[in-house]
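Table S7 (text form). Paired inputs.
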Amino acid sequence: MVPNSRIFEHCMELVQLHLGCQISEEQFSVLWARSDCLVKFGKEFKNINLLLSLDAVEYKLEISSESIRQIELYHPRGQLPNFLLIQLLGAPRIFKKLLKMAGFEKLISLLHAALGIFCCMFGASTYL
């Protein structure tokens, strides 16, 4: 039996997502931020899905393991929470949820073309 790659073993709620670029070893320039994302991933990080809503529309950002350049856990001195910096080789696939259907449609946007690096801060996260 082949395991289904669409089944996610781990889920984190209320994740802070910061999209931007790292401008130095200690600085990250935030282009866009959202504080109530849902993150789903499996044991081997084959895909990471970020689910969020914006203006009453639900979106899914899908990151494949092939597009991840590196993942680093940062422990800023005197600051909480720690955060995870994920550097990508390319932009994630972006999907927009259709109201009449249960699935997501692929969304073509300038964000998809321009996005190269993102950062998730795991402050008020809940594991399910």
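Next pair, protein 2 of 2.
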Amino acid sequence: MGHLNLPKIVMRFRKKRRRSKETQEPTHHFTIAKLQAQSTMYQHDLEDVREETMQLKKQVAESDWLLCLAQTRLQNLKRLPVTEVGENRPSCNASISPRCNPVPVWIDEIWLCFEANDASLKAAERHWQHQAPRVALEVILKAIQGSHLSTFEQIRRHLFVAALQFTLERYSESMQCLAMAFGLLDHPSEPHGDHSRELVGLAYYIQGRNLMVAGEFEAAYVSFSRAQSTPGLYRMVRKYQGVVVIDSTGAVPYDPASVRSLPQPCLNTSDTKDGSMCPPVPESVSGYTMQGRPV
């Protein structure tokens, strides 16, 4: 067996490795450039997919709105008795339809005044009704600090403060108050009685208004849907659900309860192409701007 010349073998291996590295280096640079180009292309594709996803989500929100309207309308038609003249007239039974409840008293379309509210809360409501929301906030905060409150009263006051903070455009503080209210609702230390339903509904309604301002239209629609069956909230919830659809899709939803059932003739026939009919105009969203704020 011949003698191995290790130094020569090592040198030959090093030269071969150097040549291999030189031949592979351009390929290495080419691979990096190719990967960078592919990465840029994939980023553009991802942006296109995100944009398409947003458009689909908007269409889903509008479809959900229309489906909810159709289901509500169908349920109402099943409940309405037919009179002798063949006209449908609603029955004012509050247990059947929340829309037949007595007209609720709203403050700035964000707070609903309930008869169950105690004296201190009603005093704060009066200040708010007289265009003094900051005074109302001071009154209610003093009432919270100066007395021992039941769980129900704590929740009510947290919701009241959340509504006030929303009116004062302190949306982060409003959401913090809502979080405290939801925490008490989820883990009550005592039963809420018959008022739990209205508390939950009002909490979701205020949450929906905050989410609208934040531009989270789908989440706002879901919150409004959870508040829809609460007595006294139905009409206001439906109004702002319509505003949500308009703000999120740019399309005006068709609401049979808030538009004329048939198109009305135009007084000026030059306003339409065929000079015959004008399309119905929703009344529930007139006078409102983006995010559902009154003009």
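The chain has a mean pLDDT of 71.
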